From TrEMBL:
Species of the source: Rhodoplanes tepidamans
Domain MoaB/Mog, residue spans: 178-317
The protein's enzyme class: transferase
The reaction(s) this protein catalyses: adenylyl-molybdopterin + molybdate = Mo-molybdopterin + AMP + H(+)
Name the UniProt record assigns to this protein: Molybdopterin molybdenumtransferase
Pfam family, one: MoeA_C
InterPro entries: MoaB/Mog-like_dom_sf (IPR036425), MoaB/Mog_dom (IPR001453), MoeA-like (IPR038987), MoeA_C_domain_IV (IPR005111), MoeA_C_domain_IV_sf (IPR036688), MoeA_linker/N (IPR005110), MoeA_linker/N_sf (IPR036135)
Gene3D superfamilies: MoaB/Mog-like domain, MoeA, C-terminal, domain IV, Molybdopterin biosynthesis moea protein, domain 2, Molybdopterin biosynthesis moea protein, domain 3
NCBIfam families assigned: Glp_gephyrin
Family classification: Belongs to the MoeA family.
Protein keywords: Magnesium, Metal-binding, Molybdenum, Molybdenum cofactor biosynthesis, Transferase
Enzyme Commission number(s): 2.10.1.1
Named cofactor requirement(s): Mg(2+)
């Protein structure tokens, strides 16, 4: 039998056919979290002139070289209303924060050291040349590319884009993710499950993860383990024009695991089924026309972990991001780790900081892939490569932080 597919090879097969979705123009107020489809250059210089950083007096530095200088006030410069006169020797203009420095003046003296008497002002302290003046272009100059394509816009980026004079930005369309749960046993939360039935849970975490990653989600509901109903739900997904169809459950080898059969009957080209990881071995992926299909295992932990490792990079690629995977980082094992077998293991772990400030990852005690209570305690995944050697408590390991 061929060796099972590695996580890296499987991820490459998910990502290879995925290209960024087309760009659209998004008003800034809606652009938080959207990914830029083009570089953004400043359309103006900021500040557009030399301006005062303080409320005070615009002076010529030479006039205030020593304490006690007394100058004649020839005008006033509030922000947004430049003064068209020139400050000559022995003269000053009253100026406010953001006011444009008048011609002739090169320094601002703060009003706290000024005593005003009609048209004259006396300064109890000397001024330093250039003090309290923000130079033209100190923030940025016209043409400067400050935000690059592929960047997911932060709230701070929105303020920057606005200051650059962009009312809207070109961003890749948000992926539409259809979520389909399968299983006769599933009932929605809040209902009384009958005998042998359980409450549908995993879609809530996966949907939130997809939206956190910038996607719109479409709930395709829960279908029983029947081929006709599964096929009907797949058709609904296509009618909804989803970019990604995420199924949960029915991915394994049981008599009622019909998802792959249903997808194949609708024309899915299978990329892979089953990979060398734990949890999540029965992961399946393929393409149904333009739709990227991820068939996640039903166990709630398996579905969430595979969504973090495969759905997140797919959604990032579809939005044009360059940083596809949640990065892993070094940590200290909070407990001894035994030698690993041939499957990459993603242990649910609690993260903490030790006395030396190092990140510590302690695996939860019960790693069974059905358990949501330990998953709730875990805020990281401790990565174990295939055949990794044992690590004593306190030894090095690598972790990825789970999104909140
Ligand atoms: N003979 C074998 N049996 C199994 C294998 C195998 O290789 N050979 N793989 C096991 C592994 S590993 C996993 S993971 C599961 C995955 O199976 P399925 O994807 O077919 O999932 P189901 O059987 O439908 O469900 C598994 C488990 O999860 C519960 N479930 C399903 N959907 C949800 C949901 N939306 N919310 C909450 N819980 C859900 C379901 O009730 C089952 O208990 O297969 C193993 N078996
Ligand atoms: O791969 Mo399954 O997810 O180990 O339980």
């Amino acid at each position: 039998m061929a060796a099972p597919l590695s996580v890296a090879d499987a991820l490459a097969r998910v990502l290879d056919p995925a290209a960024p979705l087309p760009a659209e123009t998004v008003p800034l107020a809606q652009a938080h979290g959207r990914v830029l489809a083009e570089d953004l250059a400043a359309r103006r210089t900021q500040p557009p002139d030399d301006v005062s950083a303080m409320d005070g007096y615009a002076v010529r530095a030479a006039d205030v070289a020593a304490p006690g200088a007394r100058l004649r006030v020839i005008g006033e410069v509030p922000a947004g209303r430049p003064f068209d006169g020139t400050v000559g020797p022995g003269e000053t203009a009253r100026i406010f924060t953001g006011g444009v420095m008048p011609a002739g003046a090169d320094t601002v003296v703060v009003q706290e050291v000024a005593t005003r008497d009609g048209d004259t002002v006396t300064f109890s302290a000397a001024g330093t040349p250039g003090r309290h003046v923000r130079r033209r272009g100190r923030d940025f100059a016209t043409g400067a590319v400050l935000l690059r394509r592929g960047r997911r816009l932060t709230m701070r980026d929105l303020a920057l884009a606005a200051a650059m004079n962009h009312p809207a930005v070109p961003a890749h369309r948000r992926p539409r993710v259809g979520l389909l749960a399968t299983g006769d046993e599933l009932v929605p939360p809040g209902t009384e499950p009958g005998p042998g039935r359980i409450v549908y849970s995993n879609g809530f975490a996966i949907g939130a993860l997809a939206r956190h990653e910038g996607a719109d989600t479409i709930d395709l509901g829960i279908v029983p383990d029947r081929l006709d109903e599964t096929v009907a739900a797949i058709r609904r997904a296509r009618a909804e024009a989803v970019d990604v169809l995420v199924t949960t459950g029915g991915a394994s080898v049981g008599d009622y695991d019909l998802v792959q059969t249903a997808l194949a009957s609708e024309g899915m080209r299978l990329a892979f089924w089953k990979i060398a990881m734990r949890p999540g071995r029965p992961l399946m992926s393929g393409r149904l026309g333009e739709v990227h299909v991820l068939g996640l295992p039903g166990n709630p932990v398996s579905s969430f972990v595979t969504a973090v490792l495969f759905l997140v990079p797919l959604l990032r690629r579809l939005q044009g991001r360059g940083d596809l995977s949640i990065p892993d980082e070094p940590a200290i094992a909070g407990a001894a780790l035994k030698e690993n077998d041939e499957r990459a293991d993603f242990l649910r772990a609690m993260l903490s900081t030790d006395a030396e400030g190092r990140l510590v990852a302690t695996p939860v005690t019960d790693q069974d892939s059905s358990l949501l209570a330990p998953l709730g305690l875990a805020d990281g995944l401790l990565l174990r490569a295939p055949h990794a050697a044992p690590v004593p408590a306190g030894g090095p390991c690598r972790v990825i932080r789970l999104p909140a």
